[in-house]
Design a protein that fits this description.
Immunoglobulin-like; Rossmann fold; globular; six-stranded mixed beta sheet; six-stranded antiparallel beta sheet; alpha/beta; 3 domains; 17 strands
């Protein structure tokens, strides 16, 4: 099913026809949002504001001052060039709080936040969640750039996703990424976008991912009550090539043949000309006929396969927080098998080495977790720092 109105919304369900079963069956839904007809709209540039999280290295500060050309928010509430910032924040939550406070006080509109992270600190989870929610309530999006090695990639990627933006890894290429992202903000034609998902009450949510193109695990999906709209912020779009893919995996009862409603969706956002609103219902048929229920949607299967590694890394990340070394070790097996089947022997070797070091030395830290995260994101690994 495809819906068009400036944006193109393509919906795929796998399997297209579910088998009738006494047990729950797995159902995957892929929603692809593309900027199909956005060229008809005039660009609506954002005012990009930067915030420094941690003291940036000298070369990073030089690039911020000379190459990027945006203003930064200082501790006194003033916008200044990067070289004149005297009070960088020390945590990500403080950076989000500083920006939200400035927005509320200045009344500025159509702003976009760039967070340049040069330090890895322990975050208060509750406070960070509150600051993210405050930013979302202001309808502001944020992108995050890692300017040093040994940051918490998993955390930064999750915060960027929740803020409707992206996390750009790479202390050696952050400036190029920021320049391209800045151009995207200047040429945006769809902005302040949100995707709403409301599952039916008899579905059990398993996992959700955003793919654009690398998969990021969406944590909030698993705790959202049924029949309540769960909202996800969308990245900006400016061209027909821009797209974002959302993959939802659930367990559903299919005990009788018939038509079953899976979820309701809404897509909302702004263009320079008018607001955009799309809504609809996604359903799935069930059949007792083996021939009718034996087909799959190959595109969705590819998406599911792309998310497997990200799912395992999330499992490892949660075990890392709990200090559950046994769970971490047990996850290496399927991860290595997956990489082998996909013809990535270098990744298998890296994972084997990590597993061996963990078993021999009993240590698994942030560096090792970041290595697994980069492998799952198909990101070239950085040199040790």
């Amino acid at each position: 099913m495809t819906v068009r109105k400036h944006l193109s919304l393509d919906v795929r369900v796998n399997p297209p026809v579910a088998p009738v079963s006494e047990d729950y069956v797995e159902v995957s839904v892929a929603l692809t949002i593309r900027g199909q007809d956005l060229v008809e709209e005039a660009p609506h540039p954002a005012q990009v504001i930067g915030v420094l999280v941690g003291e940036p290295p000298a070369d990073v500060l030089d690039s911020l001052a000379n190459d990027l050309g945006i203003v930064f928010l200082d501790g006194d509430g003033q916008l200044k060039p990067a070289a004149e910032i005297t009070q960088p924040v020390t945590t990500l939550s403080a950076g989000l709080g500083r920006f939200s406070q400035w927005i509320e006080g200045s009344g500025a509109e159509d702003c976009h936040l760039f967070l340049f992270v040069s330090t890895s600190t322990l975050e208060n989870g509750d406070r960070l969640g509150e600051r993210v929610e405050a930013l979302r309530n202001l309808d502001v999006r944020a992108d995050i750039f890692g300017t040093r090695h040994m940051l918490d990639y998993r955390l930064l990627g999750q915060v960027a996703l929740m803020c409707g933006g992206r996390f750009y890894v790479g202390a050696d290429r952050w400036c190029q990424d920021a320049t391209l992202c800045l151009e995207r903000q200047r040429s945006r034609r769809f902005f302040k976008g949100r995707l709403g998902i409301s599952l039916t009450s008899n579905l059990i949510p398993v996992s959700a991912f955003r793919l654009d193109p690398a998969p990021l695990h969406v944590r909030d999906f698993q705790v959202q009550p049924a029949n309540e709209m769960c909202w996800f912020d969308l990245p900006v779009m400016g061209s027909p090539q821009d797209e974002t893919i959302w993959l939802l995996r659930c367990l559903a009862p299919r005990r009788k043949s018939g038509e079953y409603r899976i979820l309701d969706y809404q897509v909302m956002g702004q263009t320079s000309g008018s607001p955009i609103t799309m809504s609809g219902t996604i359903s799935q048929s069930a059949s007792a006929s083996p021939s009718a229920s034996s087909h799959i949607d190959a595109v969705v299967e590819v998406y599911v396969d792309r998310t497997r590694a990200a799912h395992w890394v999330e499992t490892v990340g949660q075990a890392y927080v709990r200090g559950d070394g046994g769970k971490i070790v047990s996850t290496f097996g399927p991860f290595m098998q997956h990489e082998s089947l996909n013809g990535r022997p270098d990744n298998v070797q890296r994972l084997w080495s990590l597993k061996g070091e963990l078993i021999r030395g009993g240590y698994f830290g942030l560096k090792e977790l970041n290595t697994m995260w980069c492998l799952a994101q198909s990101i070239e690994l950085e040199p040790p720092g």
